[in-house]
From TrEMBL, chain B:
The keyword Transport applies. InterPro entries: AAA+_ATPase, ABC_transporter-like_ATP-bd, ABC_transporter-like_CS, ABC_transpr_LolD-like, MacB-like_ATP-bd, P-loop_NTPase. It holds the Pfam family ABC_tran. Signal peptide: none annotated. It comes from Candidatus Amesbacteria bacterium RIFCSPLOWO2_01_FULL_48_25. Residues 5-225 form the ABC transporter domain. Transmembrane segments: none annotated. PANTHER family: ABC TRANSPORTER ABCH.1, IMPORT ATP-BINDING PROTEIN. This is Macrolide ABC transporter ATP-binding protein. GO terms for cellular component: membrane protein complex; plasma membrane.
Amino acid sequence: MIRRGGRVDYREILSESLSALAVNKMRTMLATLGIVIGIGSVIALISLGASSQKSIENQIQSLGANLLTVIPSGQNTGVVRGAMGGGTTLTTDDAKALSLANLPTVKLVSPEFSRRFQVIAGGNNTNTQITGVIPAYASVHKTTLSSGVFISDSDLTNMGKVAVLGPQTVSDLFGENSDPLGQSIRVNNQVLKVIGVSVAKGGTGFNNPDDAIYVPLSTAQKLLFGANYLSTIAVEAQSQEVMTEAQDAIGYFLLARHHLTDPSEADFTIFSQNDILNTAAQVTGTFTTLLGGIAAISLLVGGIGIMNIMLVTMTERTREIGLRKALGAKKSLITTQFLLEAVILTLAGGIVGMIVGVVISYILSLVLNTPFVVSPPSVLLAIGVSAVIGIIFGWYPARQASRLQPIEALRYE
Amino acid sequence: MISVSHLSKIYKNDSVETAALSDVSFEIKKGEFVAIMGPSGSGKSTLMHILGALDTPTSGDYVLDGQSVTKLSDDTLAQIRNKKIGFIFQAFNLLPRTSAVKNVMLPMVYAGIDRQERQEKAKKALIAVGLGDRMDYTPAQLSGGQQQRVAIARSLVNNPAIILADEPTGNIASAQADEIMKIFEKLNDTGHTIIMITHEPDIAAHAKRVITVKDGKIIGDKKRR
Ligand SMILES: Nc1ncnc2c1ncn2[C@@H]1O[C@H](COP(=O)(O)OP(=O)(O)O)[C@@H](O)[C@H]1O
Ligand SMILES: [Mg+2]
């Protein structure tokens, strides 16, 4: 007789494994649940991390491209005024000189003076950030208007009593969906006319660009607050690539103007958007790693659950294993069969967990109002990881099964 | 074809030693139909497990088809069981929840025979034992006699030289036992070597040679006809 083939029919082994798993559906499901939870939380947490990172990036980018920010660091103002932004060492003349210097890496210079203050309009009042700006501000910070016009050069020279409002401030003062153009607001006993409303950027917290009032720089300094210094000089660099060079060039220019030679004596600080982005990325990255670690532990627990179930299965099916060996099954085949069962369990758990994780991260993105980010690598990784867990935790029971002596196994009660 | 010499098997459990077989020697030629008789606990099953390459003797030699099988690896033994030996157990030992035809196909899966051939041969074997109308029944849906006939079909599909049966009628009603014995006689007529353990004289009467064991030793070896 001719024996054809001679190779193992893995399709048959697979279908046997599937029907073995189908025998005790409840147990199979419970064993898988650990993996579902593990993979699900890994996916959800990774995409939560990615989406919060994305939302921070978006928010920072929306404040302006290639942005460098110079703030006074109060080095020369003595003792307690050393706090960031508290100094008076930056002046309008510094900004003017910087602009006129035409540094090759610098595109636009925006001197700014801002202070939180009480604003009154009609019966309402609110406390908000009032920023004195020049026309270049809009370009540097990518501020666009939904209605009206921005602060102009003539507003600046005439010390115009005009204001551009952020959308949040509009609804705080005039109510939602109202048209404030031409209305008046009162700041520090001065009446300002609303000439524009900016487009929402979707920020939150202290430096929310949507909750702001923009007035001419001269108006803010002389009329409203009586100050002759700047709180910030924002600089737009020519491109992303020259950010560092621009930062250096501005630094040396200002040091020279302030008659300082040693950079460690600088009475200002320059930080770039990249610095902020990096810090934010670091924070969210640490957070994501931490959460991912916790999720990984739950995955480990799931894997141990699989191992436990496979050991129980092996004991229950000792007679069956003995019979298979008596009928000619080799060790490797028994190993394969049990490994396959474990991998099917974890893979099924991984796929269900992946779906659960994606759904959870979608819901989270809706609730937290963050972008919905699911990276394909993390999904593939989760599936790969669940298969590997099946192999690792299924290996020991499978090897135990394959080592059973057929006669011992057949006699097993 | 089968030659055992000075075979001994000693079970050690904690401090207790049980000599299940002691110094057993005999030969069985191709085409014989041998019954091994003896009271319960006399070592019959132990002997069959060694003959079936399911177990190894403590001492002595077992030569099957000119090859000593006492020192082979697990996988080689598995291959020998798969190709040369067909097992029939007292407790049938069918896979539960698995159809008759799938049970019969199992040794062929391990022999690496392709799906279609497996199917055809399994069906033929089941028809040969009179179960052509029970192919898709699971063991739970079959009587003891029918289950044992499925087991016989399974033992035959790889066309083994030797069929080993350990009390094949022990769990079966006597009317069905006769049918089983008729199948055995027919198999023996077509050239299969059959070694059958039993303690029932009227079952042993179907064999052509009867070896009697007691306390792990051979006390009788008679040929009939
Ligand atoms: N695994 C074992 N461990 C210890 N003793 C055993 C084992 N298997 C069988 N025996 C003993 O060996 C002797 C022969 O058993 P067995 O071959 O099953 O007898 P039979 O099949 O003739 O009834 C008995 O005394 C039995 O108790
Ligand atoms: Mg016995």
